[in-house]
Amino acid sequence: TGNVLDNDRLGADRPALEHTVVGVRAGADTSTSAIGSLGLGIAGTYGTLILNANGQAEYTAYPNAVAPDGAHDVFTYTIRDADGDESTTTITINVTDCKLVARPDGDVTVYEKALDLNQDPQDLAPGTVVGSNPGATSETATGTLVGAVTGGSGAITYTLESSATGTYGQIQLNADGSYKYTLTSAPQIGNGNDGANIVSSETFIYKATDALGNSTTSTIVIKIVDDVPKAHADSTSVVEGGTVTGNVLDNDTFGADRPDLAQAVVGVRAGADTSTSAIGSLGIAIAGTYGTLILNANGQAEYKAHANAVTPDGAKDVFTYTIRDADGDESTTTLTINVTDSKLVACPDDDVKVYEKALDLTQDPQDLAPGTVVGSNPNSPGETATGSLVGAVTGGSGALTYALEGSATGAYGQIQLNADGSYKYTLTSRRRSATAMTVPISSAPRPLPTRPPTHWAIPPPAPS
C-alpha cells in the first residue's frame, strides 16, 4: 500500500486532495489521460491495483505469480488541479519471487512383517494380511514436513494433494506438516529371493502454502521393507517299517507375502545341506538311508521307513526342503525323521509234546499226515498236538502275523502254522531227537522282516 501523491506536485492551483486523482488504468501508456476506474480492482499481469481519488493505492500480487527472476506490473494514473490542468504518469510494482521451495520427504519406513488384521490405536486402518511379526507396531510410522520447505512468507500450512488412500496403505497429513502412514497390504513386486530389503515405496503429493497464498508441491515417499518367509526345522518319529505323515508348512511362517499354499514348497532333496535352495523332486519318492519320503508342493509329506532298518540304538533320516513366498523370497530348512527300533523279539517255543507210542498208519481227522510205523498204543491221538506262539513274541507295531520259514515237512513229522500264531504238529516217524522249526514273525501292516529267524524246538517223543 502507499499514496501516489506523496511525490507529486500540485502547484498553486492546488485542488482538494481527496479528488486529485481522476483515473487509473493498466499499462504504461501515458500519452492520454487515465479517466475513471477509481476504487475498483484493476487487473495487472501479476496482481490487482485499487487506486482511490485521494491517491491511496493497494496492490495485491497473485500467489505464485512470477518465476525466480521476478517481474513487474505497470499502471497509469492521472491527477488534475483546481483549474483543470492534468498530469499523467505510472506506478510500477516490482513483484519478486517468494522463493518457496519444497523437497521430497522420504524419512519414513514401514515393515510388512508387522501387518495384522487389527486396527490398533496407532493405526489409521486395519491390515488385509498378516505378517511374520503381527505383534509389532512398525506397520505405522510418523514423520514431519517441517524442514522440507524453505522460503515463503509467514507460517506454512500443509495439505494433501493426492488421495489419502494409497496403493498399499493410508496417510494422514496435518496442517502443521506432521503426518502418519499405516501400511495395510503387502506389495507383490519383489525381486526374487533378495531378503528383507526395501522392496517398494508409496508416494503421496503434498502442497505447502505460505501466509500470502504462495504454494508449491512435492512428495512424501514411504519406504516399505519386505517381509520374508521362515521355514522352521521339522522333526518326527516312526517305528522301522512304519509310515508317518504330516505337513511341513504347519510350523513355517510366510508373513505378509503369503503365497498360494498349494504351491508353497518348491523343492526337496535328501541330506541336511541348507546352504542352497532345494528345487524340484516334488511328488516323487526321495530315498533316504532308512526309508523314502514323498513331499508335495502343498507341504504334505509321507515317510515310509524300511522294515528292519535300524539297530536298537535307532537312526535318523534328514531331508532338505525350500519354501517360497509370493514375491520370490525363499527359506530352506530340514525335515528329520527319527526311525526307532520296533523292539520285535521272538522267544523259542517248546511247549508241545508228541508221543511215538501213538503212531499208527492211519491219518485220523486231527492228523496232518499218517504215520510210517505203529507204536505201542496206536489208538492214542498223542502223535498230534497243538500250540500257540502268542506270548512268545513281544514288541513290534500293530497285529502280529506268523509264517513258516522253510518246509512244513520236517525230518520226523509235519507242522501247520497259521497266521495268528496257532500251530499243529503231527509225528509220522520214530527217532529220539528234537525237531526244530524256523518261524519268522512280523507286525502288521509291515512286510515280513529279514532279521535273524526265531526257532522253536519239538522235544523228543516221550518213551513208549
UniProtKB/TrEMBL annotation:
Residues 446-464 have a biased composition (Pro residues). InterPro entries: RapA2_cadherin-like, VCBS_dom. Residues 436-464 are annotated as: Disordered. Residues 217-303 form the RapA2 cadherin-like domain. It comes from the Bacteria. This is RapA2 cadherin-like domain-containing protein. It comes from Pseudomonas brassicae.
